């Protein structure tokens, strides 16, 4: 038997997540991974590494709970929100029996994690305005244990209507968890569902330090839920999910100064996004610009492969969305510094006069 044949069938068939990093490129303007464009300062204060770290570093949990307006027992920290996505499947879905459900176009890791673990995934396409198709979801819920809903949604940038989320919570009650992926919530903090946790035992919220907190390289994310859900996730999480330096930096990011700095960065990016919203529709290569509550903008172009390639060759790296259902001709643009936004617009202007 070849090594390939020894592997699980679903792993042989798996296409790994096409992360922005894996796709490569030789850019100096990276607008493809929704990262913050500049590094934030930090110091390593914990200088010893001979001991294992705490499984759930107390200061990180306490500070995140305070930041989110919750109690520490409603918070679990993991290696990025991506690990939270997977922990939920491992704790709640029986491989080969249960299913998850999500609504494309949306974040790619829900399907990748399901495929890796061997859990069926069902999709219910979002409506034309990228809102939930509630009747279709209700019909597909048989055997579904976890519903993933991204709001604001990546890559479209829109929020899901709160009335619809309430209805979805009602139709999933007693049957499945509803997981709200709030990776971008700092860009529209009033839209968080954290205040709904006391009302809904099956609501779960995912958060991350990778986007607004400018710490994608740290790999630190949070799952927020009521204690019974957190207790189950604690059973399946690795014994030492966070390295000591990670906990150290995360604690600083969640200090009063760290949060103030994050809010200042969010205000800057929101201003840059508003500027791009004025500029993009004036360009003839741009067909449509979709409203966004996040640090990225989705736009449809007249000849998106040419736009993508021309900018790529100039070192401006965007994220191609052509293969995402319903997003033919679309590119996703992360909001960078003002200078980077200006370089982007200049490059698109040059393409528009051709
Ligand atoms: C970036 C992102 C994540 C992953 O966050 P990490 O904490 O870096 O793993 C999860 N969900 C969505 C929608 C994202 O865009």
Q: Can you describe what's shown?
A:
By secondary structure, the protein is α/β, with parallel strands linked by helices. It has helices at residues 3-6, 9-12, 20-23, 58-68, 80-92, 109-117, 134-139, 162-172, 227-236, 244-253, 256-279, 304-313, 338-352; strands spanning 29-30, 75-78, 99-102, 120-123, 144-150, 177-181, 203-208, 221-224, 286-289, 296-301, 316-317, 319-320, 330-334. The strands form three sheets. The chain has a seven-stranded mixed β-sheet with strand order 2-8-7-6-5-3-4, sandwiched between helices. Strands 9-10-13-12 form a four-stranded antiparallel β-sheet. The protein has a two-stranded parallel ribbon with strand order 1-11. Helix 5 packs across helix 6 and helix 5 crosses helix 9 (227-236). The longest helix is centred in the C-terminal third of the chain and has 24 residues, at 256-279. It is globular. The mean pLDDT is 96. The chain binds pyridoxal-5'-phosphate. The site of pyridoxal-5'-phosphate has 13 residues, from helix 5.
């Amino acid at each position: 038997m070849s090594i390939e044949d020894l592997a699980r069938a679903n792993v042989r068939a798996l296409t790994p997540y096409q992360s922005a990093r894996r796709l490569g490129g030789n850019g100096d303007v990276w607008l493809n991974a929704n990262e913050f464009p500049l590094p934030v300062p930090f110091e390593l204060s914990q200088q010893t590494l001979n001991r294992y770290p705490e499984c759930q570093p107390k200061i990180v949990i306490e500070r995140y709970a305070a930041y989110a307006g919750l109690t520490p027992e409603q918070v679990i920290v993991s290696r990025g929100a991506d690990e939270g996505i997977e922990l939920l499947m491992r704790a709640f879905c029986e491989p080969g029996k249960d299913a998850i459900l999500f609504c494309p176009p949306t974040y790619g890791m829900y399907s990748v994690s399901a495929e890796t673990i061997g859990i069926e995934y069902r999709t219910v396409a979002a409506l034309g305005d990228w809102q939930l198709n509630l009747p279709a979801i209700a019909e597909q819920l048989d055997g579904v244990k976890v519903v993933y809903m991204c709001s604001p949604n990546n890559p479209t940038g829109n929020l899901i209507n709160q009335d619809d989320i309430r209805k979805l919570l009602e139709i999933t009650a007693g049957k499945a968890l509803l997981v709200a992926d709030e990776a971008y919530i700092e860009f529209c903090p009033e839209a968080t569902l954290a205040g709904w946790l006391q009302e809904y035992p099956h609501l779960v919220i995912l958060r991350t330090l990778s986007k607004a907190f400018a710490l994608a390289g740290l790999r630190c994310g949070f799952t927020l839920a009521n204690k019974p859900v957190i207790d189950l996730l604690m059973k399946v999480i690795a014994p030492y999910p966070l390295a000591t330096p990670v906990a150290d930096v995360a604690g600083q990011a969640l200090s009063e100064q760290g949060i103030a700095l994050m809010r200042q960065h969010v205000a800057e990016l929101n201003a840059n996004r508003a500027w791009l919203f004025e500029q993009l529709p004036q360009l003839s290569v741009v067909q449509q610009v979709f409203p966004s509550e996040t640090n990225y903008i989705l736009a449809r172009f007249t000849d998106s492969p040419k736009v993508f390639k021309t900018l790529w060759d100039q070192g401006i790296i965007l994220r191609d969305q052509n293969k995402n259902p319903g997003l033919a001709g679309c590119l996703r643009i992360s909001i960078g510094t003002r200078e980077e936004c200006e370089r982007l617009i200049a490059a698109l202007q040059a393409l528009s006069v051709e």
